[in-house]
Write a structure and sequence with these properties.
- This protein has 1 helix and 11 strands.
- The longest helix has 4 residues.
- The radius of gyration is 13 Å and the shape is globular.
């Protein structure tokens, strides 16, 4: 059983919007931090946004004001609404979970398989 399953990626023109989602095992990860990371070709995986167990959220400077992370505990779904997309947002987006919300590292996170987001100029 795959613990995290992303969906909703695709292609969009610059300035457009996309919403990606992640289905997770609510029983296993109810006490965990949830986050979105992304990895562009030739670049290191970087964090995008997190949703902590106390409902605190955080965003990287590159997406702040454009992306919104949300979590529906009833549906066991984590989502990322992405607006005003730019070509530099093109990447594979990964849903991830970790006991502690330490986003500066990629260690000790459990990952989904990823969903591709492509933004054309």
């Amino acid at each position: 059983q795959v613990p995290l399953v992303e969906s909703g990626g695709g292609s969009v023109q610059a300035g457009g919007s996309l919403r990606i989602s992640c289905a997770f095992d609510g029983y296993t990860y109810s006490g965990n931090c949830m986050a979105w990371f992304r990895e562009a070709p030739g670049k290191v995986r970087e964090w995008v946004a997190y949703f902590d167990i106390d409902r605190e959220t955080g965003y990287s400077d590159s997406v702040k004001g454009r992306f919104t992370i949300s979590k529906d505990n009833a549906k066991n779904t984590l989502s990322l609404q992405m607006n005003s997309l730019k070509p530099e947002d093109t990447a594979m987006y990964y849903c991830a979970t970790r006991l502690a919300c330490v986003v500066r590292t990629t260690q000790k996170w459990t990952w989904g398989q990823g969903t591709q987001v492509t933004v054309s100029s």
